[in-house]
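Q: Got a minute? One more chain.
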Amino acid sequence: MMKTTVFDYQVGLDYTGGDEEFYRSILQDYIDNSDGIKNFLQTALREEDWNTYVVKVHALKSNSLTIGAVSLSELAKELEMAGKANQYETIRQKNYVLFELYEAVLEEAKLFLHQKTDKDAESVNETSVKDNSISKKQIVVIDDDKVSLSAARIVLETDYRVETFEEGLQGLLYLKSHSCDLILLDINMTGLDGFQVLERIKKDENTAKIPVVFLTSDSDAVTETRCFDSGAQDFITKPFVPSVVKARVNHILELEEYRLSLARKLDKKTQEVDDIRVKSYRDALTGLWNREYTKQKTDELLQAGVNGALFMIDLDNFKAINDTYGHLEGDVVLNLFADTLREHAASQDIVSRIGGDEFVVFLPNKTNRSELSGLASDVIRSLNARIQKKGYDVKTSVSIGISISDQDGDTFEKLYRCSDKALYYVKNNGKNFYRFFSDNILEEQKRANRDVDLAYLGEMLSRSDNGRGAYMLDFESFHHIYNFIKRFIERENRQVVSVLFTLLPVDEANPLDSEEMSQVLDLLDQAIYNSLRRADISTRYSSIQTMVVLLNSSPENAELVIRRIIDCFEKLYLGKKVRIQYSLAEIVGKKNNF
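A: Always. Here it is, folded:
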């Protein structure tokens, strides 16, 4: 083989991995692009554009070493380092030597190429045939040095589809509308350098996950560290050795395929888990949300400052449907009810079945009483019409209790309890209607006079006795039991005492809100339940008062019972924000016989 004075064929062949066809192709590109390199260097020197000069002399250093022009490569490296050190006078003095040596290299390179055999030419032509099969992976190469681009294309295009770009902005523009599997990116470029291009690639969600490999002739530790810190998967050192380039590219693409495979499996598993979680939040019969999801989602909205209303909806006399027509027909009615609620709900509403024939709907951003009343009426009317159309002999209707977050509570549990109390009122007062919890409060407040006269209360409860004597826990029905007791007293000559407990705030200037007072009253009811005999009865009189009737008890004995109730309450309630006031009176039977 021929050995030249300014470039060594064997050195170049060694650098290119012993691939003679590849070497000759690179050498031809080196010659073809020489005018462009010289023009860039001359212009940069004349305009004192030192950044451009350093980038281009860096490319000349790498390309000259690739073809075996070691002396030219070393001189180019010297001028590159001078430019980085701001030693511009050194560049001015030695640039003409660079150009003389460059011209000599080009002359000998041309002479060498003219001596290649016909067989060599045919071999080169055969390797130039491209296979751009759509099944091949896509590689984008961005490098402002044409020789490097040509070398990358020659090495890779037999196995991959290759797109090359001489500027960072051109490559970024292409990536905006095209996908690829790998990006090879030169570090030292005019305009945007490789690190700046990579930064933009990582910021774009469409390209952020594409693996990037840097191309560089600088193999120092600082450059390598910066490559990895910036997000590159690897780097390839110039000049290109075909076997090394192919091995690294193949390895990175295999790792990327493995990563994508794992990502797909993870996405599938994640979707399966999400599907299972969603199913666990669904009611099996109706497909509505269940209590767990409704509580979780409602609390999230409330904590985020979203006000809304909670409907608790109950089917009246549903047990009669099951008893008369069977549970399968009962399931039909429940699904009919679920469909009705879906039709009247907005997309953001949370519609759920919490068990049996009880349903809950949370309506975000809806607090207007007029709007809520209209919706409740529509639900009742629609469901009644559908049930009537089914032709059941059993009378079934709908009752609804309503609470509003900015008035009645700031958690799902608080709203649930308030709606339940409003629903309880509807169920015990004719059913087939709706009621707001705040209406309960207003009604009780009208009665909540702490100085009520027990004699007057007894007289009021005695009115309109119809003699049925039904036992009910709500105040509206309690008067029947009360009148029965009065008749019992007269017949049996027994002593009976009534007691009215009233909860008062310790600090009159800071009374408890309705929800807190309701919870304290629940504790008082529990204390009464734990302290009384089964024969004794009690009922809530107002939002702050509970009335107790003690059978077979004298006023003296009643004081002992009262003390027991208060002691029990004080053990249950640790808030110290309320105190108990009570008054008692002996119940006197009716004077007439019956």
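A: Confidence is low (pLDDT under 50) at residues 123-133, 463-473.
Q: Perfect, thanks.
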